[in-house]
# Entry
Amino acid sequence: MKIYSLIIGLLISFFLFIPNIILGRQNNYYIGSGDILKINVWGEPDLDKDVIVAQDGKINYPLLDTVHISGLTISQVKEKIAYLLGSDYLVDPQVDVAIKEYHSQKVLVLGEIKSPGLYALTSATSLLEIISRAGGVSDNIGSQINIFQAGDHRKITSSNEDISSLIEEIKPVSIDLDELLKKGNLTYNIPVRSGDIIFFTGKKDGNILKHQVYISGNVKKPGAYDYQKGLSALNACIMAGGFEKNAAPNRTILTRNIGRQQQVFKVNLNKIKKGKKQDIQLQPGDRLYIQESFW
# Structure
């Protein structure tokens, strides 16, 4: 996998030196609920505030009460607040707005990647950038990436969402990994968008998976464990040291090889712990990913 890591590094470095206007990074982030903004008004220290965008898309701001800003860019927010302040309160207010924390736009990364999970998008983001942020591909990477373009990030952040059924409803965009990483064919370096589920497939032969199960994410001792007959999903997590404080066992992801296909299922380990659902018997090669809580 060293050659993959080297190629990814070179390609990412190349993109970092492309002018911002080409990458479309200037003012292209659309603000949404959960984002935290820093607002400053020159000469008005009482109006310098950090604000969070509520679920209804509004912020609370001095003098203006609530202002709806969801779906706007930074420049548009700046203009709107300056206009509202200038209409009734200040003469020619000079407003600066910056994003302090990004929370609203996310993609879900699964499969043969070193650090699977949810990743926030802070600007126009390419597939190579996501691979780099997720630590690169794993040693068991296959030759294909499937991108399920859900189109609405709420579908992949809701605690009640069954990701397996969501994936079944969407025809994926398939990316040839060898073309992208080995040959450097940048036509495969497509942009990723909020709501995308990016699945890195494993090797077709799957020999490395025959006698182990893999537990990753928010458990105390993530890693590969020898498969034992009768091993269940909950017992595997106990074997991995139990859940971290910020774990969301109700949104556990199970990845399983079925023939030459890989399927993804959601497992609600909270209901299993309470005896409300039957525990799932694992198979050799299964991969459990325990997601992080949003709260």
Summary: The longest strand covers residues 141-149. DSSP finds nine helices and 17 strands in the chain.
